[in-house]
Amino acid sequence: MSFNLSVIKGEMWVYRIPKEIKVLNELSSFLETETSFYSVTKTADEQSIIVCDEDSSLSGLRKIESKLSSIIRDNPESESEALKIEKDWVAFKVDGVLDFGLVGILANLSGVLAEAKIPIFVVSTYDTDYILVKKDRFEEAKSSLINSGCKISL
To answer: Which ranges carry the CASTOR ACT domain (predicted)?
Structure first.
């Protein structure tokens, strides 16, 4: 199976935030105006936010880190939990709208990367999938995907 992929411009950071913090209340206006990509996931046990910053200075990501650190510090309910950040991610986007009936897309792509021993972090939206790899493994991931028959546009 081959797929068309594109690379999301910019660097991504993944933040793990204490579940008591109302992330969207605190950050929604900033996320809407300053970022090209973000994803928020909340469960009963945790919440995470993935943010992409196209600015090479990473000023948006640093602003979010600072704001979240301040919110957590000022919130007595989150004293036991600190902000955790996984930095230096790059994302491949599966191009096109993916029908819910399609089978094996992520299995195929993640299998190629697993064979190359490249860890991934996956985010899905209603229309498509995003596969994040650490920036220092990007070229290796790109080569592995191309060698498997994928076409990648930068």
So the answer is: 85-145
The runs of H, that is alpha helices, within 57-119 are 59-74, 105-115
Give yes or no for a contact between 95 and 89, defined as CB atoms under 8 angstroms apart: no
Q: Are 6 and 93 in contact (CB under 8 A)?
A: yes
Instruction: Using alpha carbons, select from 43, 54, 74 the residue that is nearest to residue 10.
Output: 54
H or E element: which one contains 84?
strand 84-94
Query: For 62-87, how does the pLDDT look when each residue is reduced to its tens digit (9 = 90+)?
Result: 988 998 988 888 887 765 678 899 99
Question: What is the token pair recorded at 59?
Answer: 């000023």
Mode of pairing for the β-strands spanning 4-7 and 151-153: parallel
- Domains detected in the chain: 10-87 (3.30.70), 89-152 (3.30.2130.10)
